[in-house]
Sequence to fold (398 residues):
Amino acid sequence: MSREPVSTFLRLMKLNRMNLPPLSLYVHVPWCVRKCPYCDFNSHVGSEIPETQYLAQLKLDLAQDLIFVQNRSLRSIFFGGGTPSLMSGSFYNELLTFIESKISFHPDIEITLEANPGTTEAARFKAYRQAGINRLSIGVQSFQRDHLQALGRIHSGEDAICAIKQAQDAGFDNLNIDLMHGLANQSVEQAMEDLNQAIALGSTHLSWYQLTIEQNTEYFRHPPKLPEDEALWDIQKAGVEVLKSAGFLQYEVSAFSKRGREAQHNLNYWTFGDYIGIGAGAHSKVTILGERNESECILRFRKTRTPKDYLLPKPAFRIGQENIIREDLGFEFLMNVLRLNKGVEESLFISRTGLSLSVLEPQLSEFRNMGLIERARLGTTEKGHLFLNSLLEKFADM
Fold:
């Protein structure tokens, strides 16, 4: 597809009415006890965490981004890391009080905190719940000693079970467990043991994803020997059946939930919603509307990455700002929504981008004729789901 100037892009967008998408907030806590060998997230080992100073910077950071709220309420907040459970309950109580004083909360707001076993205790879970956090995501990865050691985790399987039960006792009934599969020397039976343990503990949501080797990680420099493709496929098939039998719905590539317990924060990402990110290294995507609901632009930007720079007296919080240009917008949208098993209505593309479906041609018609994309929705068929990466590569060439 030929590249068109931004002025042409904006004129085309004005042909279609847009509505502002739902708004979420992401808060990054960058510190960890230990850097895991597979992790490429923005995390930093720290023995002493400047909690009070970081809280003050988060408030300043959010205040500078209030221009992007545009009279919306927050549908979800996600505290990610790093290890957010290294922070105290009073930290989250004060921060959430401040956030709500600046941006109204939707009545059904979902507020999630990532927690790692080994950095939590019963009293801290109770304090998180009292602060207003209503969903936990516990990074277990495996319940088995050998796999936990290979993954560089600081907890044991018993620690994970204890943390989950403590969270439930503190009143958390919306609980995600993160699990990895495709680990070094992992059998199908071992992978299913992890799943069955998580199910037995009463989780309402499971993020079950295959270990991949990312650049800038210890595993990239010294890669472990992972299972062959055939073994990985056997684990995937067996796991989907186990989860289905236990009443979990696969609504995204690696996300499974009990009915009504889908992660609303992640759904907003996957349906091309807006999100403001605060904290060291956090990313944002926001839609700016002009008069008469005409789109001025869709922006992406990130925050300064290292805690040291973020904590400077006068930091440049917002860096790397860029417009999503017209020729990239269709792919950006599809890269998210095609992860969803059921996809989305075609009208959402027009509403979230201001563009006509014609910008997805001729690939869209071709893939529908091949039985890879649904006829009446923007979503893959069961066959197309198996070739998702290939489909996205073709759309990227539009």
The two ends are 5 Å apart (CA to CA). The chain is about 40% helix and 20% strand. Residues 1-16 have pLDDT under 50 and may be disordered. Residues 175 and 202 are 8 Å apart (CA to CA).
